[in-house]
Amino acid sequence: MEDLEEILFEEFENYSYAMEYYLPESELEEKVHLGVVHWISVGLYCLAFVLGIPGNAIVIWFTGFKWKKTVATLWFLNLAIADFIFVLFLPLYISYVAMNFHWPFGIWLCKANSFIAQLNMFASVFFLTVISLDRYVHLVHPALSHRHRTLKNSLIVIILVWFLASLIGGPALYFRDTVELHNHTLCYNNFHENDLDLRLMRHHALTWMKFIIGYLFPLITMSICYSCLIFQVKKRSILISSKHFWTVLAVVIAFLICWTPYHLFSIWELMMHHNSYFSQMLQAGIPLSTGLAFLNSCLNPILYVLISKKFQVRFRASVAEILKYTLWEVSCSGTVSEQVRSSETKNLCLMETAQ
């Protein structure tokens, strides 16, 4: 039994959550409570999927296929791609949690799913950071922006962002593993089976790396950029709409709400190697904080793009153009008999097409 608990404690994203299946009968009340948390977290995952797929798909469609390629549209396109790929793979994780942490998809999909999740989660965070830097330079230092804010340089930054995100997500391909326990197959981080010190060192190193590079640095960068932006706006009377100000504030608040609990519980999780006193709180907190982190991927297109006045204008114009073209095609097609009887109308349509 001790070996079983030791293995489960090593499961990074939900090891403490899986412990509920091996609690004593005297702790039935805690099991009921954790069951409620279990389904609340599943609801958060489903909400992130339902909202994230259409929201990010809309952004990808317009920024990638309908609008002119600019530096700003490239940022938003890659941010939406990162969020879209992440939420696209959420059904695997939802199924895993809904089946009481039983992973029937095999070891390679266990590795791939974890890698893709971390790759796109952190790529999303990094693109949020890049957007904050870009907005600050573009509005406060227009001369510098004019010289260096080019499509070529932005493509280099995009490649670097995806490369850094892949480095952070890379360990999942090596450490992620599956294990059979009581007719359950767990997908967990196998840092080492026998060497406890090495296991602890790897767990600490990866957790702190993700916290510093994937949370602390982006948070500090966004806070400094937006604080300086607001200060310069007031000092130099740079024109900026109140709606843009509230969008900026909403982005920082959303980042704090979505990511702070995730990283705090990840750090707190490290204490479980030495003290299991707070295990019940961790069992409730880890899945909920993970769900909040997932929600950030569906909030990004809403906060950064969909509530932008410029995006709304361009979105309505694009939709109107699509509807106009669709209705024109319908009016120029019709049934075969209608086409025979309405040859003059058809010829008129063909003449308009030629123009």
From TrEMBL:
Protein location: Cell membrane
Coiled coil location: none
Domain of life of the native organism: Eukaryota
SUPFAM superfamilies listed in its UniProt record: Family A G protein-coupled receptor-like
Annotated ranges, domain G-protein coupled receptors family 1 profile: 55-304
Stated family: Belongs to the chemokine-like receptor (CMKLR) family.
Protein name, entry field: Chemerin-like receptor 2
